[in-house]
Write a structure and sequence with these properties.
59 residues; 4 strands
Length: 59
């Protein structure tokens, strides 16, 4: 099995890892309460999904 003859520089390692970062989740607006929420999920603030209440948040 071949082994590397020389070590890779910090610049070369950093260039390779330039795309290895976390991205913030994409958020949309709730049509009922206009708060930010994840798409295809019930709104955690008002409990509505697709125009109807699916989570009881008043309790």
């Amino acid at each position: 099995m071949p082994n590397p003859k020389r070590r890779h520089s910090k610049a070369r390692t950093s260039k390779r890892r330039a795309h290895d970062f976390l991205t913030a989740p994409t958020l949309g607006e709730c049509p009922n309460c206009h708060e930010r929420k994840l798409p295809h999920n019930a709104c955690p603030h008002c409990g509505f999904y697709k125009g109807r209440e699916v989570i009881d948040t008043k309790a």
